[in-house]
Amino acid sequence: MSGHSPTRRRVILGAAALTALPWSVLTAEAKLLDPTPADAEGPFYPVEIPDDSDNDLLRISGREQAARGQLTYLHGRVLDREGQHIDGARVEIWQCDHDGVYHHPGDAGTPDANFQGFGAMVTDREGAYHFRTLRPVPYTGRTPHVHFRVTAPGFDRLTTQLYVAEEAERNRADFLYQRHGAAEQARITAQFQPVGSAGPGAGPGPLAARFDIVLA
Fold first, then answer.
1. 2, 73, 102, 105: least surrounded by Cβ within 10 Å?
2. What is the DSSP letter of 56?
């Protein structure tokens, strides 16, 4: 006959459960995704959102000519820290044109009139977004980059920049990029990979870059 009473057994089981709880919590927390690092907004966010601010930055409504630059399909998903997609998140991007000029009164250069410069869209049911834009180019003091602002109900607003993996030398010299440690740099850097040919004499072919964004 056992010498342990039902009451004693319940106490032992309860203590065991309490002992296991912290490890379970730590295990769950360890599986959370790291949020996408924030980065400087910079001085060139639009003073006013342009009338044409869709997700195709290479074509402006009413203009026949496309913007100059290397066509790039920029896409990804917006996720929470548990890896669940966030539908209805607003994703905004802005960047300089092929000559390194922003559509902004604070930039003294003359911008490409056929380049939208800013675009926005809302993520779909899978948390996906996609833009048609140009491969970012360097300008004085900065490595190529694309600015992002992402907002979603219940999450902190994220402002960050996306960098080009193939621009390692310029990235090493960029003061903003170097403010991040290696792990953070990896989360805001994407490969811009060829996805086809532009045809004979048409210049470099199109690129694609995937940038998944994790909100906190």
1. 2
2. B
SS (H, E, C) 56-125: ECCCCCCCCCCCCCCEEEEEEEEECCCCCECCCCEEEEECCCCCCCCCCCCCCCCCCCCCCCEEEEECCC
Phi, psi of 28 (to 5 degrees): -65, -40
The residue type of 206 is P
The model's pTM: 0.85
The whole-number pLDDT of residue 117 equals: 98
The parts of the chain modelled with pLDDT lower than 50 are 1-2, 6-21, 23-27
132 within 8 A of 58, measured Cβ to Cβ: yes
**138 phi/psi in degrees, rounded to 5:** -80, 160
Instruction: Answer yes or no: are the C-beta atoms of 161 and 40 closer than 8 Å.
Output: yes
**Residues shown for the chain:** 216
Give residue 114's region: left, alpha or beta (phi > 0; psi -120 to 50).
Answer: alpha
Q: Among 146, 149, 193, which Cα is nearest to 38's?
A: 149
57 in Cβ contact with 120 (< 8 Å): no
Q: Are 56 and 63 a contacting pair, CB within 8 Å?
A: no
Give the amino acid at 26.
L
Q: Which helix (H) or strand (E) is 160 found in, with range? A: strand 158-164
Structural contact between residues 179 and 172, judged by C-beta atoms closer than 8 angstroms: no
The DSSP bridge partners found for residue 164 are: 190
Structure confidence by residue, pLDDT tens digits, 201-215: 667 899 999 999 999
Question: Which H or E run includes 142?
Answer: none
